[in-house]
Amino acid sequence: MLYTVLIIVVLLNGLISTSSFIITSLSKDFAMSGLRVGVGVVGGSDTRKGTAKVNDMCQVSSHTQVLVEEMLKDEVWVKEFKEEQGRRVKDRYDRVKEALRGTGVRWVEAKAGMFIWMDCRGIMREGETEEELNGRLVEHGVMMTPGESMGMKGGGWFRCVFTAVDDQGFETLIKRLEGLGELRGGVSGGGGGGGGWGDEGPLAGLLKFPSRMKIKVVGPNDDGFVSDITQAVKGVEDVQVENVGRNNKGKWTSVSFDVDVENEQVMRNIYEAIDKDDRVKFKL
Prior knowledge:
The longest helix has 26 residues, at 75-100. It is globular, with a radius of gyration of 22 Å. It has a 5-stranded mixed beta sheet, covered by helices on one side. The protein is an alpha+beta fold. It is built from 9 helices and 11 strands.
């Protein structure tokens, strides 16, 4: 949400790494793509200078800035809008999942988002490439983003955006998703009758496990927070914590540590343990 990220800009000033980027926009958070307004937070000073030069050529007009300011100042409206938007997105997400059941297509369970990450290997034919499967999907009337174009390895993964059409278009999508079972070729690695990924997940296609990861958590600048977060991560089963660091910036602090992660589920357990602390403002 843009309103939240504007606050995070202040919280993370000087605390995010030089290679970190945080971006958001009104087109994603308020369905107002026509205003062409966004927010970017960049950790490195050199990158910030380059970004500022680009901004010189695409500044937001004064009247648009005033409009956006007035809109965001209405906190009651913003709260009601985000609640209603969240409800509608969740309703569509649930219906997409239900439409996929029994088709041979699986998906990654999500906590938020405007699309669903689909494992279509269960409807691939013997020896079929992702590009060939994509051609059959288009012929079926479903156009999605192939996973390989986004760095996903293994073939057969697709990103299906379900929020970019009106209600009539969405109903058409549901009918076509329900018919994906007709495309089954009976071969590859996804298999099954369709369902969400549980403890296992798709990140093995993007990350190598076991892996050493650096985790950073931002919260209040006090010793209790640092100690509690460190102990919470150490308390996760099968996790070894090393190189605990701390970087203070005013009333905020950034806690960082290296962890050896055996598999995706352990990684999820780490972030779930961090999320249990209400004082956490941001995590990487």
